[in-house]
Amino acid sequence: MVVLSQPSLDQLSLIKTCKPSTNFSTSIPLIDLSKPDAAKLVVKACQDFGFFKVINHGVSMELVKKLEGEAVKFFGLSQSEKNKVGPAKPFGYGSKAIGPNGDMGWIEFILLSIDPKLVAQKSFYISKENPENFRSLVTDYLEAVRKLSFEILELIADGLEIKPRNVLRRLLEDEESDSVFRLNHYPPFPELQALSGENLVGFGEHTDPQIISVGRSNTTSGLQISLQDGTWVSVPPDHLSFFINVGDSLQVMTNGRFKSVKHRVFADGTKSRYSMIYFGGPPLKSKINVLPSLMKAGEQRLYKEFTWEEYKKSAYKSRLGDNRLSLFEAN
Ligand code: GA4
Prior knowledge:
331 residues, alpha+beta, 8-stranded mixed β-sheet, 5-stranded antiparallel β-sheet, 10 helices, 15 strands, globular, binds gibberellin A4
């Protein structure tokens, strides 16, 4: 079923189209979490790319399949049914508009906070048939990907030799952690594709403001990351693995050693892309600051200290593609 109507001309002028130029020769770091060298490789990937793929991640594929099935069902509903979830301001269903400041993409999505009460409340509109099933799938999925994010943050602490081991993990483990969960659907647009051969930008280039993001997709391609020299690399889809992004906050905590990866998604003209991403953020009152033990003698701090609440407020005033950290650079 075609879920979003074909783009009209005025929508197309807002949603960027282009023939993406990409570099296919660079391969994305692949890290087997069951291997003893994982900590070293995670740190290297965070420094070189701010991005990597993990296998042996411990998340049940059965669970992933079931939740993706629910997402497919939901995005297949009529527009009026989907609208009943409520606008994504900040949590709910959104279509084409990304964030509050005029960014647009060829996408529809559900944005949820990980607060169990909100998940339960929204489940009634997302799955009228069986809200309890949807709620419990999201809860179990979040438990599994959060566990994975904790493991990765501990590997980072080990690899950087920072103590205690849970110094990063505890920010996401905290009951007040301000984390977000997003289910995305990038619908196909076969007629337009056939006509022009152009691609539509599904989610424009940006960095994630949080500490770390854990995402996966179905087998439809579209994700690209920017390398440090500015070239874009297509990330081949892999529905069995998870992709990890360093967020702005982790860049600050490592004084720029880790790079918050710039990424974007193109919608495929012929096939639906579905993705689900957990964005791990700290409690609102947490101070985001360089980890003191990382600072070498004479090293200058690159960023001022700020609370996650301050950074989040500032992020929500920005456009998607802005360099949000530039406002927090130390003089
Ligand atoms: C990017 C990462 C997450 O998807 C997100 C996005 C958020 C939104 O879609 O509402 C933002 C974007 C993201 C960064 C800048 C602001 C906020 C849209 C936007 C223009 C949920 C997040 O936390 O930040």
